[in-house]
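Sequence in, structure out. Go.
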Amino acid sequence: VAALGGIRDRSCLALTMGRMREDTIFRDAAHHFLRLFDRMLIDFEPDSTDEEIADLSETRTARAFMLLGRVTGASTDRHSSRCPFPPFRRMVRLQPLQAGQMPAAGSSRDTLMDRTKLKAACTERLDTLAAIHKIGHEANHANRYVLRSAKGTSVEIMFEKGGTGNANLWVRSDFAPGISTDRIEQRSYPGRQVNTLTNNKGKKVYGRHSGLRPMEQLATADLTRFTLSTVADLDQIISVLRAA
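Output:
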């Protein structure tokens, strides 16, 4: 569901993420609602027209389902762009795109995006959402940003924009807890390993992207490197960071 959710309002996502973390009663009720709506959708979808599905997607109940689905990351398949619940995929596919809205992740416009276009789209999104770090970007390899959370916290992030490698986003691990590894590929870089690893010549190395070295928050902290597959992956991480 996180890969497909049609809800794109970042403040709404951040507020719901915070409520899910802090309110156990709300969280239990949300999961119960997701299960019940999914059962209803499975029964409703086979005999419904596209118009009826599209109308359903515009109801407050369906929007609540898509919002909670994105926040919880429920029902996603790590090894495929296929959602285990086709009725939900059909509902999101038929939901009208609003002006300026990115295509829903999992649609052909998103999953077929090659790495270069993905990096360009993510860079454009970050340029809109975050401020350039005071030390600036690297010319060719990485962009450094500062994101302001809902609590006023300054959150440093770095995005690997250049080369032919993956679209990697680096954040401090304690700012991005609970993001499901079933949805977004990620790797931990403990701060205690900085300058302790050695190369094949026996020389100690920094052990992480060199662009992080001058960043105060990220240089030696415990980090998580997220490998983005879609712009929706970036949106999900940003929504968590905004709640930090």
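Check: Confidence is low (pLDDT under 50) at residues 1-5, 74-86, 96-113. The first strand starts at residue 131 and ends at 132.
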